[in-house]
Design brief:
mainly alpha; 5% strand
């Protein structure tokens, strides 16, 4: 078997990943993340004078997983977060697994690597109506030129971060107070209701964008960015609102998903139907809907049959 370079292997495996995404067997977001990680692995290998895939040893692969990185502002992070390490590890394992299937290598440098421990999941922020009002107030700064109020309006309609980033002016029906979403990896296509505040700020945002140039327009994100970049941008935009409102601090982190939890609780309180929470949020699992709405259900009974 002729020696394969890291670059050639990456090109061939990328084609495999994209075919899997086209067949619905792999998320396109995961493909983008794996390609980005493995491009960094390629640069890391070259920096260590490594050209061929078989020269990547277990020690080098593990060093890459643990290597320092940079945040969105370009600041060096000496010890990457566990989620970053897991993402790198997963991408490298997938790269080598498909390379072996293609007959490009027999190596499996991370096969004996220890699992990366996960931190305990932090509880949600449990936002209250008065806190939502604070988020709305502080998101209005600079509107409609800034995207913050439109971003919050879409989250309050029940869209996820990915769906919010993909939302376009053509998805809005402001006359009837609705927004359509095509769904995302874990959510289904649906039409969501907009409240009066959301209709107001989205009308201002749409008018502003249309005056700049003919549409259609993405409401809060760059249409040319990859899904992973868009989702990261939505998180950063929401974080600005949460910090500005004083709700997100060193002791309490407020994220877009906390708005989704708030919306889920509101739907459950309004309708009393868990199925309605799932429908409006585009969920196929009632368990996920119950988790978002903080509803304890299907709890095993004590003293049951043995």
């Amino acid at each position: 078997m002729a020696k394969a370079t890291v670059k050639d292997v990456l090109l061939q495996v990328c084609r495999v990943w994209k075919r899997l995404a086209q067949d619905g067997l792999m998320s396109i977001n995961t493909v983008d993340e794996y390609i980005e990680v493995c491009e960094r692995l390629l640069g890391y290998a070259y920096a260590h004078q490594i050209t061929f895939i078989d020269e990547i040893t277990p020690n080098l692969a593990q060093a890459f997983v643990n290597a320092p990185g940079r945040d969105r502002r370009g600041i060096i992070i000496e010890t990457p977060a566990g989620s970053t390490q897991r993402q790198r590890r997963s991408a490298v394992i997938s790269l080598f697994a498909h390379a072996r299937a293609l007959g490009l290598t027999k190596a499996a440098p991370l096969v004996d690597a220890r699992p990366i421990r996960r931190s305990p999941r932090q509880p949600g922020a449990d936002l209250q109506p008065q806190e939502i009002a604070r988020l709305q107030f502080h998101s209005e700064r600079g509107m409609p030129a800034t995207r913050h109020s439109a971003l919050l309006a879409l989250l309050l309609a029940g869209l996820t971060s990915a769906e919010t980033g993909a939302a376009s002016t053509t998805d809005l029906d402001l006359t009837s107070g609705r927004v359509h979403t095509r769904g995302a990896t874990h959510t289904l296509a649906r039409t969501c209701t907009l409240d009066a505040w959301s209709i107001h700020v989205l009308t201002l945002r749409t008018t502003y964008l249309d005056r700049k140039r003919p549409g259609p327009h993405r409401l809060v994100a760059n249409a040319g960015s990859s899904p992973s970049v868009v989702q990261s941008s939505i998180g950063a935009g929401f974080s600005e609102i949460a910090r500005r409102s004083g709700l997100s601090t060193t002791a309490r982190k407020v994220e877009p998903r906390d708005v989704t939890r708030y919306v889920a609780r509101q739907i459950l309180n309004e309708t009393g139907q868990l199925s309605e929470v799932a429908r409006r949020l585009g969920l196929s699992s009632l368990d996920v809907a119950a988790g978002l709405a903080d509803l304890q259900w299907n709890t095993p009974q004590r003293g049951g049959a043995r």
